[in-house]
From TrEMBL:
<dbReference type="InterPro" id="IPR004839">
    <property type="entry name" value="Aminotransferase_I/II_large"/>
</dbReference>
<dbReference type="Pfam" id="PF00155">
    <property type="entry name" value="Aminotran_1_2"/>
</dbReference>
<dbReference type="InterPro" id="IPR015421">
    <property type="entry name" value="PyrdxlP-dep_Trfase_major"/>
</dbReference>
<keyword id="KW-0808">Transferase</keyword>
<feature type="domain" description="Aminotransferase class I/classII large">
    <location>
        <begin position="31"/>
        <end position="381"/>
    </location>
</feature>
<protein>
    <recommendedName>
        <fullName>Aminotransferase</fullName>
        <ecNumber>2.6.1.-</ecNumber>
    </recommendedName>
</protein>
<dbReference type="InterPro" id="IPR015424">
    <property type="entry name" value="PyrdxlP-dep_Trfase"/>
</dbReference>
<dbReference type="InterPro" id="IPR050881">
    <property type="entry name" value="LL-DAP_aminotransferase"/>
</dbReference>
<dbReference type="InterPro" id="IPR015422">
    <property type="entry name" value="PyrdxlP-dep_Trfase_small"/>
</dbReference>
<dbReference type="GO" id="GO:0030170">
    <property type="term" value="F:pyridoxal phosphate binding"/>
</dbReference>
<dbReference type="GO" id="GO:0008483">
    <property type="term" value="F:transaminase activity"/>
</dbReference>
<dbReference type="InterPro" id="IPR004838">
    <property type="entry name" value="NHTrfase_class1_PyrdxlP-BS"/>
</dbReference>
<keyword id="KW-0032">Aminotransferase</keyword>
<comment type="similarity">
    <text>Belongs to the class-I pyridoxal-phosphate-dependent aminotransferase family.</text>
</comment>
Length: 389
């Protein structure tokens, strides 16, 4: 039996590889601390769980859900965008519910790009931008994110022939894996670029509610006229510790939203209605105090890691958002080699930067989604191991 040729172009999925390493080490009786995956360790707020439990008792919620998201859920997303970002959305034409952002990213790519088209992807970045372009048969053009440019893409370096063939351009701020942030001036430049080149700007806003030292992430849709060329993905996974619930939304350009909805209706059956109702509760229960509590916890953990890295001789600027720390490997080591050595010598799993793209080579990513006492233990182990590198 032969698989489709496109499968040969896909690298092993990073997080499956990390899971395999962890299972192997734990089977050997090792006390492994996993700092490789960004999956919140704190519980979903109780009132959201209770909303799900109540909604799950209603027989009508166990029938097929609305393919595009219930009217109430989409209305709530539109209201949230107005409350949080001051952005007006038509809840019918400019919002669609998603089974998590990952699903929406995949389906949008299939709807917008195909053979002969180009998808502009930041490098390093969330691997799904790349893999879904490959599955759609499109060409990927990576734009390097470097410390010299504050991990922002230099749009002026994109060649003319790439611009002419590009159908989509991904941006992700606050950024995974680098932790970098962008201001509205950057989004203005991105919107102007995409308008001039007739490219769909795709903004992945997964980490919008994580912020330190007073930082609050903007939305690309706050730029005047952005909806002409922009679709944005907003997820409940990270803000509310709901990664396993799979509930999100795409908002913005009505043509892109409609195309995404049309493809989805042919491929899936929407989000379980009870989960949507819990999502409505999450967004309408004045969550700012909860966000502040979460951010205090992550900031404490951020500072623990930054201090430990400094003790290793690594001066890493503290990120203003996300729950990731992006730091360089020793000069003589690849990211995969350094990641392997931390597992072998410290029983600490880190994500190798090369898994996020060629420009991620020479970097490692630490996730802060680990209990604080375990994070401290991991840092002590890493310091001891680093001295042996």
């Amino acid at each position: 039996m032969k698989l489709a040729a496109r499968m040969e172009q896909l690298p092993p999925y990073l997080f499956l590889e990390l899971d395999r390493i962890i299972e192997q080490k734990r089977a050997q009786g090792r006390d492994v601390i996993n700092l490789g995956i960004g999956d919140p360790d704190q519980p979903t707020p109780e009132h959201i769980i209770q909303a799900l439990q109540l909604a799950a008792t209603r027989p009508d919620n166990h029938r097929y859900p609305n393919y595009l998201g219930s009217p109430q859920y989409r209305r709530t997303i539109a209201q949230w965008y107005q409350q949080r970002f001051g952005v007006d959305l038509d809840d019918v034409e400019e919002t669609v519910g998603l089974i998590g952002s990952k699903e929406g990213i995949a389906h949008l790519t299939w709807a917008m790009a195909g053979p002969g088209d180009v998808v502009i992807v930041p490098d390093p970045s969330y691997p799904v931008y790349f893999t879904q372009a490959v599955l759609a048969g499109a060409e990927v053009y990576p734009v390097p994110l470097t410390p010299a440019n504050h991990f922002l893409p230099d749009l002026a370096t994109i060649p003319r022939d790439v611009r002419q063939r590009a159908k989509m351009m991904w941006v992700n701020y606050p950024n995974n894996p680098t932790g970098a942030v962008a201001d509205l001036d950057f989004f203005q430049r991105a919107v102007d670029f995409c308008r001039q080149e007739d490219i769909l700007l795709c903004s992945d806003l997964a980490y919008a509610e994580i912020g330190y030292d007073g930082f609050r992430a903007p939305s690309a849709l706050q730029v005047e006229g952005a909806k002409d060329v922009t679709i944005e993905f907003y997820s409940l996974s990270k803000p509310f510790n709901m990664t396993g619930w799979r509930v999100a939304a795409a908002v913005g350009n009505p043509l892109a939203v409609k195309a995404l909805g049309t493809l989805k209706s042919n491929l899936d059956s929407g989000v379980f209605t009870a989960v949507q109702e819990a999502g409505i509760t999450a967004l309408t229960s004045n969550p700012q105090d909860f966000f502040a509590q979460q951010n205090r916890l992550y900031q404490e953990r951020r500072d623990i890691v930054i201090e430990a890295l400094a003790a290793m001789g690594l001066a890493v600027p503290p990120p203003l958002s996300t729950f990731y720390i992006w730091f360089p490997t020793p000069a003589h080591m690849s990211s995969s080699e350094a990641s392997r050595l931390f597992v072998e010598k410290a029983d600490v799993v880190l994500a190798p930067g090369s898994s996020y793209g060629a420009a991620g080579e020479g970097w490692l990513r630490i996730s802060l989604t680990c209990p604080t006492d375990r994070l401290r233990t991991a840092m002590e182990r890493m310091k001891a191991a680093y001295s042996q590198f």
